[in-house]
Design brief:
Main location (chains A, B): cytoplasm
Strand content of chain A: 15-25%
Number of helices of chain A: 10
Shape of chain A: globular
Structural class of chain A: alpha/beta
Largest sheet of chain A: 6 strands, mixed
Radius of gyration of chain A: 17 Å
Oligomer: homodimer
GO cellular component, one term (chains A, B): cytosol
Organism (chains A, B): Cladosporium halotolerans
Function (chains A, B): Serine hydrolase involved in the detoxification of formaldehyde.
Number of strands of chain A: 9
Largest interface: A-B, 25 and 25 residues
EC number (chains A, B): 3.1.2.12
Distance between the termini of chain A: 28 Å
Chain lengths: ~280, ~280
């Protein structure tokens, strides 16, 4: 479970660590970035924000272009940037699509062959990775963890939060896939990772289905750009999540940001708001 | 002189324009990014900060990873991110080195064949590009312009400022090549673009040589990371510039930032300080 540190980079008064470790659940080496604010120490461990990236990304995109570190440094929060899938399992077809397989793990544990072999990003992100991090880095406070993410990673953040009441102090998302069972990206991924068991397996990883079952209230912050082509194409469906929230009496605030697209220019613009949202619950 | 806008991207309440235009001095199409803060209009034009990028970069690196836009939006400043050389001149050997030719124009007008053909980044940045921008974009105030840059672009910022008293309201630099005549990068570039006329041509593009001749005082802000390998290898030589400033009684403040490297993680950390430095003089 120990990490190899391949680079230590000074950033915003803290440091960005480039890490690699062997994962049991994915059976591969997994890479990630970890930002430690300058104030973090074993005697004053920092709370932790997980940032889950979207399709085609790795743990580098958010660390290089998301600009979470500026706000995280200010609030003394550590940020974890995991990869989006196992790499190098050599499953046939794994690298053929941008929206399935490599770079598209969807934060689920695949049950259908051949992806059930190592596409276990749900277990990796909720269990194996935090356990490994919190035992290796005493500068992290494993009892105070929040989660956010973008697009496929927004779906990941919402579903991991909703499936694990109490595990994460807060959740927010940028342009999340909010109702994957009803959009092309989600249908392709769930069909490939789960097969056609929509009632149980699909619904168990669909934020719009999960929200009504969540015990207690929620305070979910979501930003979506009105110029986002994937939003326009019906891949994100935040309205379905809003509708479910309204029916169930849960708190979901979707901010439709005028003219913003799906890129890191959108994410970086609102990154500070999402760090602040997490900070409220991490303090 | 008119620009083609290939993308308009919402960012920090303003917009990032991806532009292309035909340059007479380089004889090629040149690409760049332009950030317009949300407040900029023809009746309230924004002052302008040029950001000159370093070796191997294009106008995209700073726009995506430098994080100048956050601070520029706050101060109502536009930011121009030009390319670092002409592209596609098909000069033999042009693409062979990372530190000469493509991506390495050094912000000089080459006088030596074959680079004298179109490697005219000095004229392009000081004259042709601003003229074209200020006639095409009425949201820009061409009478209030500052300049900054990184590494080779830090050299560019310093020399363009020092060679053109009054043209730029202020200058700052990140890890600039401060005395190119005395470092391997500069010697290779100047030898290739100028030949061996060190006394005139080299000195005319060397910040350490130019500083004492600048009329009036200066207030130059420079950040250099103490963990920067290029600094350690003697490519940057900020001490030589400091020494020249001391002798000439000019203002140069070099901040040696503990442990920082040469990357955009370093630049993004201090970008806000440099925008603020420019803002003092642009208001």
């Amino acid at each position: 479970m120990s990490f190899e540190t391949t680079a230590t980079i000074a950033n915003f008064g803290g440091k960005l660590l480039k890490l690699a470790h062997q994962s049991k659940v994915t059976t591969t080496q997994m890479k990630l970035n970890l930002f430690l604010p300058g104030t973090a120490s074993s005697s004053k461990p920092a709370p932790v924000l997980f940032y889950l990236a979207g399709l085609t990304c790795t743990g580098d995109n958010g660390a290089e272009k998301g600009f979470f570190q500026a706000a995280a440094a200010k609030h003394n929060i550590a940020v974890v940037y995991p990869d989006t899938s196992p790499r190098g399992l050599n499953i046939q077809g794994e690298d053929e699509s941008y929206d399935f397989g490599s770079g598209a793990g969807f934060y689920v544990d695949a049950t259908k062959d051949p992806y059930s072999k190592g596409y276990k990003m749900y277990s990796y992100i909720t269990d194996e990775l935090p356990s490994a991090l919190f035992s290796s880095f005493k500068e992290l406070d494993g009892s105070r963890v929040s989660i956010t993410g973008h697009s496929m990673g927004g779906h990941g953040a919402l579903t991991l939060f909703l499936k694990n009441p109490g595990k994460y102090k807060s959740v927010s998302a940028f342009a999340p896939i909010s109702n994957p069972s009803n959009c092309p990206w989600g249908q392709k991924a769930f069909g490939g990772y789960f097969g056609e068991d929509k009632k149980d397996q699909w619904a168990a990883h669909d934020a719009t289905e999960l929200l009504p079952k969540f015990p207690g209230d929620t305070d979910i912050l979501i930003d979506v750009g009105t110029g986002d082509n994937f939003y326009k194409q019906g891949q994100l469906l935040p309205e379905n999540l809003e509708e479910a929230a309204k029916k169930a009496g849960k708190g979901v605030k979707v901010r439709y940001q005028d003219g913003y697209d799906h890129s890191y220019f959108f994410i970086s613009t609102f990154a500070a708001d999402h760090v602040e949202h997490a900070a409220k619950y991490l303090k």
